[in-house]
Design goal:
27% strand; alpha+beta; eight-stranded antiparallel beta sheet
Length: 301
C-alpha cells in the first residue's frame, strides 16, 4: 500500500516540478485530498511554468511505477488512463482534470490489489493561481498539512497495518475460515499466525465435519498442506470424524466416511419402515361398518 501511494503521490507532486528547464513561472496553490480515513488535505505552493495548467502532458509526469496512456482532451477537460505496478501492488485506473483561467481540479481513481488484498483509492486535487512570478528551476516547494510525503506515507502505512491486524485477528474467524492462504503458505498475508490457527484447526478437525472437510479439500487441491504444517494426523482425524456421522453431517462426510454414511442411511430407512402403519390391517373393522351405516342413513337406502 505504501509503495503504491508513493507512486501516486510522485506523479501528483510532479505538478510541483514538471518543468525540466529553467523558465519563468507563476505560483500556484495545489490541494490534494485522499479518500483514505484520517488522511488530511495537503496544500502545496508550487511554481509552475506559465500556461502549464493547459498542458496535462507537462503537468502529469510519468515515473517508473505508474504509466499514463490514452490521454484525450476535449475543450477544457482532459482524461487519461493509467497503470501502476510496484511489484507487490498493482492497480489500474483513470484520471481527469478540468481547467479554468485561474484554477484547475481533477481526480484519480485506482483499483487493484495491495499485498493480495483489494484496493480502491481516490485522490482529488485542485489548483489555484496565486500569480507571483517565480523561477521554475529554483523555486522552493512549501507544503502545509503534512511535513513531507514521508509523513503521508507513514500515516497510510499505519492505517494499513491497523487494518491488516484486524483482518489477521484469529478470534474474528470460525475455525473453517482459518484454513486458507491468508494464514498459510509462502504468500500468507497474516504471517506469524500459523501457530494459533493450527491450534484451533487441530482441535476441531477430528470432531467438526465442516472443519474436517474444508481441511481435506484444501490439502487435496493445494501445494501447501495445512495438515502437515499443523502436525495433524489425517488418518486419525478421519477415524474420529467418521464416528460422529449423524443426521446433521452424513451427507457432508459421505465422501470421506462412505461406510458409516451408508450404514446410517440404512438405519434411517429401516427405522422408517418399522414405524410406517399397515393401512390394510390397522383400520378397525368396526370403523368400516360404522361408516357404511352412516352412509346408508344419509342416502336412505
Amino acid at each position: 500500500m505504501n509503495k503504491l501511494l508513493g507512486a501516486i503521490l510522485t506523479m501528483l507532486f510532479s505538478l510541483t516540478s514538471a518543468a525540466a528547464q529553467a523558465a519563468p513561472g507563476e505560483q500556484w496553490e495545489i490541494t490534494y485530498k485522499s479518500d483514505m480515513p484520517a488522511m488530511p488535505d495537503t496544500v502545496t505552493t508550487a511554481c509552475l511554468p506559465k500556461d502549464a495548467e493547459k498542458n496535462p502532458g507537462q503537468l502529469m509526469k510519468q515515473n517508473g511505477s505508474c504509466e499514463i496512456s490514452d490521454m484525450k482532451s476535449s475543450g477544457n477537460k482532459t482524461t487519461w488512463k493509467m497503470r501502476c505496478n510496484t511489484g507487490s501492488e498493482e492497480s489500474t485506473g483513470s484520471g481527469e482534470v478540468t481547467y479554468k483561467k485561474d484554477s484547475f481540479q481533477g481526480v484519480i481513481r485506482l483499483s487493484g490489489k495491495s499485498q493480495g488484498q483489494p484496493l480502491d483509492m481516490t485522490e482529488n486535487y485542485r489548483g489555484k493561481r496565486i500569480g507571483t512570478a517565480c523561477d521554475t528551476d529554483n523555486a522552493a516547494v512549501a507544503t502545509r498539512g503534512m511535513e513531507n510525503v514521508n509523513d503521508m506515507m507513514g500515516m497510510a502505512n499505519k492505517q494499513m497495518a491497523s487494518a491488516m491486524a484486524e483482518q489477521c485477528e484469529i478470534s474474528n474467524y470460525r475455525t473453517a475460515e482459518l484454513i486458507s492462504g491468508r494464514f498459510f503458505g509462502p504468500n500468507a498475508a497474516c504471517t506469524g499466525k500459523e501457530k494459533y490457527a493450527c491450534k484451533m484447526i487441530a482441535k476441531d478437525a477430528p470432531r467438526n465435519a465442516d472443519v474436517y472437510v474444508r481441511l481435506a479439500k484444501h490439502d487435496d487441491t493445494s501445494d501447501v498442506s495445512i495438515a502437515q504444517i499443523c502436525g495433524i494426523d489425517m488418518a486419525g482425524a478421519t477415524r474420529s470424524i467418521c464416528k460422529t456421522v449423524d443426521s446433521g453431517n452424513y451427507q457432508t462426510l459421505a465422501d470421506y466416511c462412505p461406510a458409516e454414511a451408508k450404514a446410517f442411511q440404512r438405519e434411517v430407512a429401516d427405522s422408517g419402515s418399522a414405524k410406517s402403519p399397515n393401512t390394510a390391517t390397522d383400520i378397525p373393522a368396526n370403523s368400516v361398518i360404522d361408516g357404511a351405516k352412516k352412509l346408508k342413513g344419509l342416502f336412505g337406502y
